[in-house]
Q: What sequence folds into this?
């Protein structure tokens, strides 16, 4: 057949077919969404380790003493069960894992540390979860899991993989708590107040999550239920400062624009933004600036909330947790409350969802993430 007679296929549609999640509120999307939609924060005094002498003392922690190396395979198993993946199919799935590193590394003798990197930990988790053992580790701070989702979606869209399991985990630990506290990043009043006057910083939170990213063709072939469609994704770097965001929001705006372009959507089609909204004075203002760059005058009425005000900042796992929340909110037809709000900030003129959940009026939503070093990601999802 000549070149003119060849059939050219476009990118494969990318969908989510399974979810497993652990948060401060328990296991599953049910307890998580009940808290998120009610705007009921999960912050409480830290009991997992000592915080005497720290400026802050609260976090959103799961009950008991969860172990990351155990909870990751458990959430992956729940996501695969939710997706209806039989054991032989799971055994062919690679794992993209976002973590801070191997949790055992600090206790390993110096001579044995080469066997305990993030990549080896990801391979061990994949094997324990019954996956193929092929694994890729992501350690790029708050954008780690959204980057993993974008990479998985890109491979599926190009037809290079039928499905990939993406997982992420962070459990509030003494080291990271001390680091953020020393950097004066934690809210001293025990509440996260995104985009609000009087906001004082972030608070950490537990999250272990997994999703199955799959081609729509493969999902249809096996009769799988579709939770949502990954319509677009965008990634950029600010190249501005090691910790402070670019004040004009231009880097995040480019990430959003990239996701919209990939989805072939105009900004006006977006009906909700689950913002990064960490509650930091500079970060929230820069994010609001980014939304105004993309949505113009419409940003003042665009439904926006940051669910970190409820479940906390889960670092490498945060973006995946918030993607799960965004997908679940679209499925429920109700948009999460921006909790902790005290009053308007002139630098954050957005259509914040306040008081009670807003009805979803569009099937399209954005989940945004930023990270130290100026990394930005935007994931654009469409209701099933």
A:
């Amino acid at each position: 057949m000549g070149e003119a007679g060849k059939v050219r296929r476009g990118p494969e549609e990318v969908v989510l077919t399974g979810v497993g999640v652990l948060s401060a509120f328990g296991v599953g999307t049910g307890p998580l969404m009940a808290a998120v939609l009610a705007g009921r924060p999960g912050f409480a005094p830290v009991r997992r380790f000592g915080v005497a002498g720290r400026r802050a003392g609260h976090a959103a922690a799961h009950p008991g003493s969860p172990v990351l190396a155990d909870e990751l395979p458990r959430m992956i198993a729940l996501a695969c069960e939710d997706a209806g993946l039989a054991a032989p199919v799971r055994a062919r799935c690679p794992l993209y894992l976002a973590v801070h590193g191997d949790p055992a590394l600090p206790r390993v003798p110096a001579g044995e540390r080469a066997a305990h990197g993030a990549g080896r930990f990801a391979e061990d988790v994949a094997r324990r979860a019954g996956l193929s053992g092929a694994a890729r580790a992501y350690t790029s701070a708050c954008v780690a899991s959204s980057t993993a989702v974008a990479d998985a979606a890109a491979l599926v869209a190009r037809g290079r993989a039928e499905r990939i399991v993406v997982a992420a985990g962070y459990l509030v630990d003494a080291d990271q708590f001390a680091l953020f506290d020393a950097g004066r990043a934690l809210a001293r009043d025990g509440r996260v107040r995104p985009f609000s006057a009087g906001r004082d910083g972030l608070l950490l939170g537990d999250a272990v999550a997994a999703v199955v990213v799959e081609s729509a063709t493969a999902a249809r072939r096996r009769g799988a239920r579709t939770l949502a469609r990954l319509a677009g994704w965008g990634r950029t770097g600010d190249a501005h400062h090691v910790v402070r965001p670019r004040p004009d929001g231009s880097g995040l705006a480019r990430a959003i624009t990239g996701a919209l372009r990939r989805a072939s959507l105009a900004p006006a089609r977006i009906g909700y933004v689950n913002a990064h909204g960490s509650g930091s004075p500079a970060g929230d203002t820069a994010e609001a600036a980014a939304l105004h760059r993309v949505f113009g005058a419409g940003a003042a009425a665009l439904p926006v909330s940051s669910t970190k005000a409820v479940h906390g900042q889960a670092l490498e796992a945060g973006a995946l947790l918030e993607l799960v929340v965004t997908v679940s909110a679209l499925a429920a037809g109700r948009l999460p409350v921006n909790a902790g709000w005290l009053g308007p900030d002139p630098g954050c003129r957005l259509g914040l969802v306040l008081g009670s959940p807003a009805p979803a009026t569009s099937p399209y939503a954005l989940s945004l993430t930023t990270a130290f070093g100026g990394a930005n990601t935007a994931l654009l999802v469409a209701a099933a």
